From TrEMBL:
InterPro entries xrefs: Amidohydro_3 (IPR013108), Metal-dep_hydrolase_composite (IPR011059), Metal_Hydrolase (IPR032466), Metallo-dep_Hydrolases_sf (IPR050378)
Record's protein name: N-acyl-D-aspartate/D-glutamate deacylase
Cleaved signal peptide residues: none
Amidohydrolase domain location: 44-297, 431-551
Gene Ontology CC annotations of this record: cytosol
GO molecular function terms attached to this record: hydrolase activity, acting on carbon-nitrogen (but not peptide) bonds, in cyclic amides
Matching Pfam families: Amidohydro_3
Source organism superkingdom: Bacteria
Length: 580
């Protein structure tokens, strides 16, 4: 490990305190000294003149659990100053696993569908040499080397399938099965899982509620009893503010289950920020207020980037999650000739029109053709850069027929893009400034043909700080670093201070941008070929350090893989060992 002295920079320390001019000395992967005019003591010197020196950014909500096994460079995260990522969100985790293959395949299928990742690489690239979460962690540490540190939740869905097999989809658990779930959770938390993640939101491609939606109160209570024995852990849950709008009822249930318990809870969607969600916003704000008044340590999770939808027939959950299972039939069909045959079939088209008219949610992309853009053609036929509504009107067609026609002409690998959902910016800023919220949520590592995720952190610096001046630089850095480290109980990082891990980003505010998405054709498809994903060019940072090791420098990924598996239980001990 090479020591380094970062000279002549402006330190934004991650606490929200005012920036200050200082040098930063890194020794053995730890920040050893912070102050003006430090003298080199034989280590490498990095000139940070005109640059900000900040803690490395924490990606607070990712789904790299599978992707990290075949995309080890975690592109484009190093070039955006990211140094830690949190995985296993929303109830989805690769462990624990049931001992029988049918139940294991169910977990793979769930992960693949909800995170828009092909099943093939899951089967081809992961060894599946675990049943318990502790065995999974050991396998990851043996087999995976990545440039970011990472922490991981254990998912309630995975726990339920491991304890109940495929019947987890169908019914409540027996007392014996609940006891088994508690045992599996205890194993995970003892092995350093960040906590338990959960899902009160999703339905699959067959319109089945995810297994965690079948859990009774007794099941939750047993799992929360285990969590209270591990005060450093967190509970993460996503509630439904996007489809069936059960979010208010979800919060009422959570308030009842968590009342009186000493459990930190992060609720994705607790304070919804999109305009179409406004009807349920007051009830949810009131629930959060009452939970906090009752002593529940609740942290709303939010994204500063409005969701966008890319409608792809290769791999996408958008149609199913818009409540249209007719177009989803085309997504499920592997053969592109058969996809085209469906799109051309008059009987299928009639069912598709009916589904768009009577089944799709009113706020979904399918009901808003004026917001769907024909931008990405496989063969260039076009027309391009017009809306689906304009195209449909020009032909006198129903919007479903018009999209089918356009895709047939342009190729079944073409994509249709939705404009970002209108968002309440004032409420988003209010959440950023709330001391108990979780921001910088990106879903990076998932939905690879719908969004990139990685690199969205740059907008906090470019849009909110530099251009609109709605946040100070100190506030934006705190949102992505010290605040998140505190939430996740990762107390050895997230701040530029002596004794903290040397996870550091160095960048010039005049140089950075959130780059546009581009296609990279490097995702294994499990059949010996590749498919594509969205990525973007680097922000770039001048330097990204992870545990004191440069992962991005001179405009490029260095190839270094210093990332470590983090957990609240072992970080203090590891830090003490490094300092010796």
């Amino acid at each position: 490990m090479s020591d380094i002295l970062i000279k002549n920079g402006t330190v934004v320390d991650g606490t929200g305190a005012p920036a200050f001019k200082a040098d930063v000395r890194v020794k053995n992967g730890v920040i050893a000294e912070v102050g003006p005019n430090l003298q080199a003591a034989g280590e490498r010197v990095f000139d940070a003149t005109d640059c900000q020196v900040t803690p490395g950014f924490i990606e607070s909500h990712t789904h790299y659990d599978g992707t990290m096994w075949w995309q080890a460079d975690l592109d484009p995260l190093p070039g955006y100053g990211a140094t830690t990522m949190v995985m296993g969100n929303c109830g989805f985790s690769p462990a624990p696993l049931h001992k029988y293959m049918p139940a294991q395949r169910e977990m793979i299928g769930i992960f693949s569908f909800f995170e828009d990742i092909p099943e093939g690489p899951f089967m081809q690239n992961l060894p599946w040499d675990w049943n318990s979460w502790s065995e999974y962690r050991a396998s990851v540490e043996r087999n995976v080397k990545v440039p970011l540190n990472y922490a991981a939740y254990v998912g309630h869905i995975a726990i339920r399938l491991a304890a109940m097999g495929v019947e987890a989809w169908e019914r409540e658990a027996t007392p014996e099965e609940i006891a088994k779930m508690a045992e599996l959770l205890d194993d995970a938390l003892a092995a350093g899982a960040l906590g338990l993640s959960d899902n009160m939101h999703d339905h699959d491609g067959q319109n089945r509620p995810v297994p965690s939606l079948k859990a009774c109160d007794a099941e939750f209570e047993a799992l929360f009893d285990v969590m209270e024995r591990y005060p450093g852990c967190c509970y993460q849950v996503i509630v439904d503010t996007f489809m069936r709008m059960t979010g208010p009822a979800n919060l009422e249930r959570l308030a009842r289950l968590l009342g009186g318990r000493k459990i930190k809870v992060q609720i994705a969607g607790a304070i919804p920020t999109l305009e179409f969600q406004k009807p349920i916003l007051p009830a949810m704000q009131e629930s959060v207020r009452k939970m906090r008044e009752a002593g529940v340590d609740v942290w709303p999770g939010y994204a500063h980037v409005s969701p966008t939808s890319t409608l792809s027939l290769v791999k996408s959950l958008i149609f199913a999650q818009s409540n249209d299972y007719v177009w989803h039939e085309v997504v499920l069909e592997d053969d592109h000739h058969k996809k085209a045959a469906l799109l051309a079939d008059p009987a299928w088209r009639a069912r598709a029109r009916e589904s768009w008219d009577t089944q799709a949610w009113d706020h979904s992309p399918l009901k808003n053709p004026q917001e769907l853009f024909l931008l990405d053609s496989e063969n260039g036929t076009g027309p391009l850069n017009i809306t689906l509504k304009e195209y449909a009107d020009s032909l006198g067609l129903h919007r479903s027929d018009a999209m089918a026609d356009w895709i047939l002409k342009n190729g079944t690998r073409s994509t249709v893009h939705m404009a970002p959902f209108p968002k309440d910016e004032a409420l988003t800023l209010e959440l950023m400034k709330d001391p108990r919220t979780v921001g910088n949520i990106s879903d990076a590592g998932a939905h690879l043909q719908m969004l990139c995720g990685g690199g969205e952190n740059a907008l906090l610096l470019t849009q909110y700080v530099r251009e609109e001046k709605k946040l100070t630089l100190e506030q934006a850095i705190h949102v992505m670093t010290g605040k998140l480290a505190g939430h996740f109980n990762l107390h050895d990082r997230g701040v530029i201070a002596v004794g903290k891990r040397a996870d550091i980003a160095v960048f010039n505010m005049d140089e950075i941008q959130r780059r546009e998405m581009v296609k990279a054709h490097d995702v294994p498809d499990g059949r010996g070929g590749t498919t594509w994903r969205f990525t973007r060019a680097a922000m770039p940072t001048r330097l990204t350090l992870v545990n004191g090791v440069p992962t991005f420098e001179n405009g490029a990924f260095t190839g270094a893989m210093p990332g470590q598996f983090l957990s609240p239980a072992n970080d203090d001990a590891a830090l003490a060992e490094a300092a010796e």
